[in-house]
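Anyone able to model this chain together with pyridoxal-5'-phosphate?
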Amino acid sequence: MVDVSIQAMTDWVSGGSNGCGGGRFAAAIATDQLVERTRTTVGQLFNADPAGVCFGANMTSLTFAFTRAVAETLRPGDRVVGTRLDHDANVTPWARACASSGAEHVLAPFDAATGTLPVENVIELIDERTKWVAIAGASNLLGTVPDHAPIIDAAHAVGARVYIDAVAWAPHTTIDIAALGVDALVNSPYKWYGPHSGILWMQPDLLASLPVFKVRPSTDAGPGRFETGMPNFEAIAGIDAAARFLIEESLERISAYEQSIFEPLLTGLLSIDGVHVYGPHGPHGRTPTAAFRIDGVRPADVSAALANDKVAVWDGHNYAVEVVGQLGLADSGGVVRAGISRYITADDVQRLLATVDRMATTGR
Ligand SMILES: Cc1ncc(COP(=O)(O)O)c(C=O)c1O
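re: yes, here you go
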């Protein structure tokens, strides 16, 4: 987490103006103001109507709550289109909604050779029966950023709505929700230097009409419809500060820095004999996240060796079970995933490459 976000959380819990909202006394009024201020900041970060900003525990919980409500609107014969590029948190919630409503859930494959998602793979599944299209902002495993605009257009042309999982996308790029024209977009502030929490933005008309699961006394207007129970106000204080930090820093600048650090990582991995890189091999249409394997070495052993050399990476499927399934790597340990963020340096990358080079040569 970035210092200003940690400080904002600390200040809120220790500042004395931290009552639960909804009261007529100063501390409660200050809390209500914090929540509304944070919706405005988040709206500014994503160029979105603040009236559609809903806070929650994390992307997965928000998505399950969302699809549970959507399921109430689905009928047998309806269709939901997803992709195999997605994290399971944008697959299973939709599968469950379809299973409970009798709708059909279909997944578009990506191109395993290039790690890209040809838009026609998704568009050809979108037809008159389609009610929702759920796509990745970016793949958390391969880094692939699909071409969202034609998919959104195709969905809207048949009256379907679009839900974007932007968890792996938001930390690396400027997202303009108004320009995208998407109906709902979800992401997790803990991926952009804020606290563990989730944000789901949806079109205010969708928010007003969705048959959400809520208790009777809670508000039936605005984001409060979707925010069950007492909000995590301390996290909301941290989100406000983290979002302001991103606005000030500018995602263009963060992205340019990350790309400059990522480029030697990608070209370095591609140049080592015995290393196989999954996902796009070029700098375009991707986030600075690389997925790879070393011939003859288990991904878990690679990440353990890297941990020894003070490089923190993940191995396995990273919950992108459809991705490793389509790549045929589900039973052999998945991949090693190395991601660049704002605090990673060129030295870190060189340390990673030296270890991978050694393992590719010696197997250890
Ligand atoms: C692309 C993507 N979607 C969804 C999730 C789940 O997010 P959360 O932990 O906020 O539920 C993750 C988590 O890493 C992710 O990378």
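Residues 58-60, 87, 89, 140, 165, 167-168, 188, 198 surround pyridoxal-5'-phosphate (CB under 6 Å).
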